[in-house]
Amino acid sequence: xxxxxxxxKAEVQPHVERDLGYEIQTPEMxxxxxFQPSTRNLFSEIAVHxxxxxxxxxxEKLTEMASLHDVAEALAWxxxxxxxxxxxxxxxxxxxxxxxxxxxxxxxxxxxxxxxxLADRWGLYExxxxxxxxxxxxxxxxxxIKGTLVEGVFGxxxxxxxxxxxxxxxRFLRP
Length: 175
Fold this sequence. Notes:
mainly alpha, elongated, Ribonuclease iii, N-terminal Endonuclease Domain, Chain A
């Protein structure tokens, strides 16, 4: 897990920062995007089986580690909400006839398939921090995971740079 975190900081974060045009101020938060549900399961199981104190991590630390995926989900939720407003500059046209197409255009920007392209550009999927057995996932499931990772990045962008930052980064989601 430590190697994965180091790889995210050394390989993924610089790529994202280059595209965004600024340094991510909270690299720890950025790294949390990559924690998958299986990390919660692992640390929760360790907490249950080592209640006697034989684990070098305290129960409090294990609980904290188990909640890392919850932070990832929260960042994705924030990113999803911020994108709904953040893409407006990209999709808005002053033509009255185009007003009815805003929802359609927004959906193309926010689709998992489209966000998967950006996840591939940044290499997000390959750096997930997980403890799942290596099983083949369906394309839709992979796109959903990639979309969630991208939303997590946008959540981090929002917390650092606000809607202005999200609006600026939305150009990377142009279909």
